[in-house]
Fold this sequence. Notes:
The structure is a homodimer. By secondary structure, the first copy, chain A, is an alpha/beta fold. Chain A is about 50% helix and about 10% strand. The first copy, chain A, has helices at about 5-10, 30-40, 45-50, 50-65, 75-80, 105-110, 115, 120-130, 145-155, 160-170, 170-195, 215-230, 250, 265-275, 295-305, 325-335; strands at about 70, 85-90, 95, 140-145, 200-205, 235-240, 260, 280-285, 310-315. In chain A, the strands form 2 sheets. A 7-stranded parallel beta sheet of chain A has the order 1-4-5-6-7-8-9, with helices on both faces. Chain A has a two-stranded antiparallel sheet with strand order 2-3. In chain A, strand 8 (about 280-285), helix 15 and strand 9 form a beta-alpha-beta unit. In chain A, helix 11 (about 170-195) runs parallel beside helix 12 (about 215-230). Chain A is globular. The two termini of chain A are about 25 Å apart.
Amino acid sequence: MPKNNLFLDALAGREVQRPPVWMMRQAGRFLPEFCALREKYDFFTRCRRPDLASEITLMPVKRFPIDAAILFSDILVVPQAMGMPFEIKESTGPFLKNPIASIEDIEKLQTPDVEQSLGYVFEAIDRTLTLLNDEIPLIGFSGSPWTILCYAVEGRGSKTFDKAKAFCFQHPDWAHLLLQKITDYTIAYLAKKIEHGVHAVQIFDSWGGLLSPKDYDEFSWKYIKQMVDSLSDKAPVIVFGKGCWFALETMSNSGASALGVDWTISPQKAREFTQGKITLQGNFDPAKLLAPPEKIYAEAQQMIREFGVQKYIVNLGHGILPNVPVENAETFVRAVVEFK
Amino acid sequence: MPKNNLFLDALAGREVQRPPVWMMRQAGRFLPEFCALREKYDFFTRCRRPDLASEITLMPVKRFPIDAAILFSDILVVPQAMGMPFEIKESTGPFLKNPIASIEDIEKLQTPDVEQSLGYVFEAIDRTLTLLNDEIPLIGFSGSPWTILCYAVEGRGSKTFDKAKAFCFQHPDWAHLLLQKITDYTIAYLAKKIEHGVHAVQIFDSWGGLLSPKDYDEFSWKYIKQMVDSLSDKAPVIVFGKGCWFALETMSNSGASALGVDWTISPQKAREFTQGKITLQGNFDPAKLLAPPEKIYAEAQQMIREFGVQKYIVNLGHGILPNVPVENAETFVRAVVEFK
């Protein structure tokens, strides 16, 4: 058990003196030491080399008094292991030359033993845990099956993922076959992360909010629910569905330990929709870290007052932006640590 | 008064036999006859030539039994008239070489007489009304002040408009000065459209949903509210805030005649948040027009059952996609016309 147990206490709903804090994408792009490393190694090399992944994971821990570390990695390592050779283009992001377009493409996908195909992730966990020396807990993560399908079918990032949605609406049976394959493999992946010692896992449903509530139930939540059901007795599971305010009530009735919320929902509404019964995580507007530090400090503390200290994990409402000054991120964390 | 008064009846909350239907962006990119015209004339030529703008406005009217026409134009004609020379790049969309970055930039903005600077729009209205021959009503539109600020400060489209948001968070006084200038000018613009005979106006707040509820109140709703207050005694005003589910209750207490909703809110929730007291417009997922026609037909009719026939205008939840087959759009409209 880590010496700083604030994060795990909040996940378990135990009483805390102040809420824990961490920042989505804290291990990365806004840190000068990360940018220096990026000059030398490309994206997936940074993910695949356990020495680099663990070094990057520790970067924000060394700078800020955060209450949890999150393993540096990417949601696309899972589809890569299944036989989708994703690249990251520095300008446009994820790219898959031959996106999934047919039932044959789906049938061809592999599900090799995770220890073999993704061993580098588990080795990075082992190394990171040694470096963390039981000071704070370590979070592991994956994408949601729907979010992975979005990239697999679209082949690249998109504002609206219309191609992925059209695929689901035109061939729901294919979509479900693909989603089930991704789900089963991701469950095996996260279970192995937990075996290797991560203290909690977070499922990122970055694109769930592009679906109507009905389609969300059919194409996203159905599979996240399977993941929660399979994993929640092994470690606390956090579900973060960006834009998924409409599903918070359903999510709060699952076995998840916490739900991430973005900044477009007020703390009051988030508590109302979840009937105050589950730990919430969020939801500072990432762009507000570009405001003057005194504004960041005041608004972060106001956010805590509105969510309440208990059953709450302070975080951003989405990943930290690359152009956030380090001082501003530090102010955000300090506002939480100094909260009375 | 147009012969087909269904749309204005729904806006006024009068009883109807079936809900009216139109589609956001119906005059444009998914129609082959529009694409043919696009080969010959660039974007703003199509907006600026009244003969072309009125011809394009009529295109969907000739194809589908829709209950309202919307004038072909663009929200950026307003900032253009104020001295921001926006271009449209076919690949990346709106582009402004020197985005607003200082108080001087804002002070330099002009507010020439709208009849002079935007006369081509009013001439397009005159021509279109003649062509429509009082068959169906004509809608005029503008962007919301916040949405125009997004483009003016960012200088181009964006997923998150962080630069625009940072501008507001760092210089709220500048932001408010800019927003007020845009508001006053847009009110004059829409008032003149109404004078020229449009039967209703719609305010598009495409990027309101990127703000937290508090920031939305400060930077977007405050100005939309001024527009509604100034215009609602002249013609019915529809407010469409994409992603602004969190503001529906506030909006429903304004003088707007109808509120547009996107597809991420269920009809039941939209009615609940607005307490059943205002006409709603929406909210078919535009990507669902890529589904097989029989699915489109069934889901469109199901949507009507869920919203209810009264106080309802059938529409998409955002603009029609360029790759929608004409047959599918026709099926959508037919599902409404044939609804019993």
